[in-house]
Amino acid sequence: MLILGFYGGPSTEFEAGSPTQTHDGAAVLLKDGEVIAAIEEERLNRIKHSYTAPLRAARFVMDQAGVGLDQIDRIAIPYMSGSAERLLRRMYLADPSAEHALDVADALRAQWRRYLGADVPREKVRFVPHHIAHATATFEMSGFERALVMTIDGQGDTEAGLTLKGSAEGLELLHRVPIPESLGHFYMQAIGFLGYRMFDEYKVMGLAPYGDPERFRAQFEAMYELLPDGQWRLHPHLLDGMYAQLMPRRKREPIEQIHKDFAASLQQTLETVVFHALRHYRASTGLRDLCLGGGVAHNCTMNGNILRSGLFDNVFVHPAAHDGGNALGAALSVHRSEARHRPQRLRNVYWGSPLGESDSVETRLRAWSDFLDIAPSANVEEDAAELIADGKVIGWVQGRSEFGPRALGNRSILADPRPAEFKGLINKMIKTRESFRPFAPAVLEEQAADYFELPAGATRFPFMTFVLNVQPDKRELLGAVTHVDGTARVQTVSREDSPRFWRVIDAFHRRTGVPVVLNTSFNNNIEPIVDSLEDAVECFLTTGLQALVVGDFVLTKKDGAPRSALVPQLPNHVRLHERRQRDDDGEVRDTFELRRAEWNGEACKPLPAPIFGLLKRIGDAPIEQLAREAGLALDEVMPTMEELWAERCLVMRPQAAQR
């Protein structure tokens, strides 16, 4: 049986209209319960946390299996139809002149008919409650026979979480968390005081170890009540009282100790409430294994503390615990209901875009030969390890991309884990993000216990879902990946599941005596993780990365290559906008903007009139030709074009790559 999991918003980036509250759209294809392919829409349309319908993703996963939509047996949607229909009605009220189907199944079928070319019979469509999809994704792939299952997020459908028993018979509901008690909403509301917003929660998790939770303990303790039977009540309105002590930080203002202390108190509050619930259900059910799902389950500091507490023998957190993973959870839920067969324990998530065969990779790289030195490698793992041991920070692209928010050795930036100064260096020159943000160590599975404190009997932590303590005698050695509190978000690397990545780390170990490398996602802070070869090359050329290893090729940058020979293109989610407005002096002026679609609206970037005019002319011509035709000097044009490229407002490719 072929089951397509399909999660995303009602519109595409080609259609007018505002983004909705959906985010992290994705598609997954199961064949007889096993994953054939899975990818988030953001990897393909390059809109971070993409709110759009996952049409590219759906087409990709079906292409991987060589099937069309008409051959799919079931399409699983990870929300209830009533929730979606309320959204459709709100959209209709906002714009009654547009064409709207108020029945969600009909709306989806019309979209698939238009963009995927098949008329799907209504009986093939299955709706799965949002949190059941979260719970199914984590329990079905945990390998546990029986487990306590807890999902925690902002909200989905009409609840903010579930607690369930998982067994061979399925999932048995124990408790629903009502939306007013949403820990996800509370956490997101609180981080506004730190100048952060939705999808910045992980930054606050990284900031918390720098702070003292005692400073705001009393204030946060007033914001929750721990009730009998593992339940709780939140009082988020009391956050208003924080204004007397902490005015919200504006974006780009310095982070001070008071902000760190606030983050520490918030993290402690989250864990206090979650542990209260876990202790109750551990005692009342007798279950010794735990599965976590939902966006809050990406709080790997919390996960590590649960693991170390000894409350449970085993803890499994799905590596795609967020909403993108619900495409998988919905598909697994439908499979379970019809086939009664459970998949094997999850071992890896290399389910995305394949890099391609070596000949194809070389052909595509040669299009960039004016900008790159391209060296075939007879032993690419040894060459990559040599670069890392020499202090180089490299991009590493191999095989199929990972499903979920973590780069796990196929779309990664790799570096030496020892020099503490690498944290600031990489944050500044490549990731362009806050200096306090930690990096993760990837360690050979066989030697993980020598460098990190692992629970008794545990050897595998392949998904960066837990923060573990670094062994005290290794903390100074692993300066680039040890956080301020002596912890690290560990990834163990298996020779069986990630053979090429394992060989890189092994080669680095033989050179340095350290079986660990620094591993972070291959992207800057504006874009999703790179997916294609071309994504990787563009990120390489617009950051401070010192080498790029793609398949069996080692790439370095050519000095002085004429970037004016590149052909600029506007991505599908970027548009030019011209308007006339009256300024403060009362004069009417024309303004020129570039607008980029984001998950919560559009980001606007003002443009000088000459650059705006040049961009209106783009087609198949290189920048130098466009500038000449517009009567502009290259030194007038190139700084802005380079900036727009670095910010992914433009795609720039060689003419050979366009062909």
From TrEMBL:
Enzyme Commission (EC) number: 2.1.3.-
Name of protein: Nodulation protein nolO
PANTHER family named in the record: NODULATION PROTEIN U
Matches recorded under Gene3D superfamilies: 3.30.420.40, Carbamoyltransferase, C-terminal domain
Gene Ontology molecular function: transferase activity
UniProt KW keywords: Transferase
Family under the similarity heading: Belongs to the NodU/CmcH family.
Enzyme type, top EC level: transferase
InterPro entries linked: ATPase_NBD, Carbam_trans_C, Carbam_trans_C_sf, Carbtransf_dom, NodU/CmcH_Carbamoyltrnsfr
Keyword Transferase: yes
